[in-house]
Amino acid sequence: MRIISGEFKGRKITAPKKLPVRPTTDMAKEALFNILNNQYYFDDIMVLDLFAGTGNISYEFASRGTDKITAVDSYYGCIKFISETASSFKMNISTIKSDVYKYLQHTKQDFDIIFADPPYDFTIESFGKIPELIFENKILKENGLLILEHSKHTNLTDLKHYSYSKSYGGNVFSFFENT
Fold first, then answer.
1. Can you tell me whether residue 165 is helix, strand or coil?
2. Structural domains of the chain, ranges and CATH numbers in brackets
3. Where is the signal peptide (predicted)?
């Protein structure tokens, strides 16, 4: 994987093969950030990266100037890798080893952008629990954006706060808004 834009543009990051991850493709990531570029000043926002995996999305935000990033994953190897990589690049990414649902139930922070990339084999109920907890617990700021990455075989259009989706190959980003 590589960083698409910003201070660390073009830098390649190689994650250990033993991590249980499926990083967002460069093509999909570039398309996503083209959308976000038109809506946000990256140095003014707080970002939450759920099911952070390799930290791919967190690094992209950090490279573009975001310095308030929290990455959450339940797998220690992922958290360790993100922490080490962020430290080597001098990126300000806070890492939290936690079950995402437990984190969403207990956090007192709120964020401008929340990105979640859960396993593609999640059930609709498991996907639906993510926006449910985020909106119930007021974790997304007013005019904030929740982005759920999922397979093209998963349809999230019936979930509350759903706004729209964008497809890139087999990847889909569904957007949920707090308006």
1. strand
2. 26-177 (3.40.50.150)
3. none
- The answer to whether the beta carbons of residues 1 and 25 sit under 8 Å apart is no
Residue 32: C-alpha distances to residues 116, 149, 153 (Å)? 13, 10, 19
Q: What is the pTM of this model?
A: 0.95
The answer, yes or no, to whether residue 173 has pLDDT greater than 70, is: yes
H or E segment and range at residue 28: helix 26-37
Q: Buried (b) or exposed (e) across 1-34, using 16+ Cβ within 10 A?
A: bebbbbebeeeebebeeebebebbeeebbebbbe
- A 10 A CB-CB count for 132 gives 16
Report d(CA 100, CA 107) in Å as an integer. 10
Taking only the tens place, the pLDDT of each residue in 87-102 is: 999 999 999 999 999 9
More confident of the two residues 169 and 136 = 136
